[in-house]
Amino acid sequence: MRIFIKTYGCQMNERDSEAGGAMLAERGHELVTNENEADVLIFNTCSVRDQAERKAIGKIGFMKKLKKTRPELIIGVMGCMAQNRGEDLFRELPHIDFVIGTGQLHKLPDIVESIAEERSAQVTLLDPDNAVLTGMGAHCQNSIFASIAITRGCNRFCTYCIVPYVRGREISRDIADIVAEAQELVDGGTREIMLLGQNVAAFGLDGNINPPPPDHSPFAELLEELVKIEALKRIRFTSPYPSYFNDRLIATIAANPKICRNIHLPVQSGSDRILKAMNRNYTAEQYRNIAAKLLDKMPDLTFSTDVIVGFPGETEEDFNATRSLLNEIGFDNAYIFKYSPRSGTAAFKLDDDVPQAIKEERNQILLKDLAERSAKFNIKLNGSVQEVLVEGVSKRNTERWSGKTTNSKTVIFTPSDGIKPGDLIKVKINRVTAVSLFGEIVEKE
Ligand code: 5AD
Ligand code: SF4
Q1: Would you place residue 218 in the very low, low, confident or very high pLDDT band (cuts 50, 70, 90)?
Q2: Nearest to 284 by CA among 296, 295, 299, 273
Q3: More confidently predicted of 232 and 136
Q4: Which of 10, 46, 49 to mutate to test the pocket of ligand 1 (most atoms within 8 A of CB)?
Q5: Integer CA distances (angstroms), 293 to 106, 216, 285, 296, 443, in order
Q6: Which of 40, 144, 312, 332 is most buried (CB neighbours < 10 A)?
Q7: Which ligand approaches the C-alpha of residue 306 most closely?
Q8: Over residues 11-32, mean pLDDT
């Protein structure tokens, strides 16, 4: 069968789609990128904000027409919204054939094939607490960049967040399994690996919600094993909860330049009152200290972050505390979200009292600050020499190539003979914009 998978949401969902697709391909099915050519349409959905659910429901609803003209078409929904809404989805979207929960990814090929044979609608939802790690390792094709899911689920229960409910309790894979998966990818040509999890820094601490003592970090142990893979040039990870950055983990990152110098450190708010209401277990001051400790050991480090504006009860003063913390840390990238109440979470009981217009206004203010900071940061890089991992032909200009710095900045350069994707080269920057750096190669691999 020809299979089309559409993914909504985060990198974990992208990874699940890839693993699901790879398992189907192993059974002899073909993955296609055009929905009109497909026999099976799978929607991998997100629940983190209401808008994400509405977008997916709108798109899947639209498929009703296609199903009318081609009744043999199989349509399925997987991912967080599938887990969240379960069988209700059959009422809302009667033309779909299956709904598969987040803990059942490994059964995707069986479900698709049995529906094709029996033409019967079915639901499978597993208690997410028993989520299995099977199937996590399947990859579609080897490329320079690959992601590996190292944990599933989350134990933190931030009051706004639906993830612990739809992805279940946190479980970690074995270090040996992850290293074997990384080695296989690298043998196939991968040069940069992104480690994924809701709270990667809590890797290996299953069941224990408290951050470990300063000298203990199973995540650091994993990183130390991965850096030993010689042909692997770069390692990134997302997302780590700030409080798990202890001395052991910071020392490991500092000692290993293969671990990229851009860390995503979700702050969510700069107001202690709001952080407390969010059940984040740090104060703004503690967050500052973690960032300072990291910078002390790695002065070339840059940070990105996640922020929520308009959490219930967020005053002008709270928002200003967030704004000044962001400017102070100098994040060169930030994902800013307007608070969206999620049924079932603790914050859902609170009055969503910040008007939409104020949420939008606060969002715009932070975006503007971010653009200004980012432009200033790029200007500082003009004239510098940057190490770039080559990606290939630039999307915008086919005569140029692009790659990324360890700080996650995109660099556009003129290719020269012998350069290939996956090479680590040095580029002298001679022009910058707010989003990209431009330059010429000064040293090949
Ligand atoms: N409303 C808005 N943003 C949210 N996030 C998680 N839940 C919500 C919500 N209910 C944001 C957080 C998290 C990111 C992945 O999504 O900032 O870090
Ligand atoms: Fe959600 Fe908080 Fe877990 Fe992140 S750490 S997935 S925001 S509950």
Answers
A1: very high
A2: 273
A3: 232
A4: 49
A5: 41, 17, 12, 5, 33
A6: 40
A7: 1
A8: 96
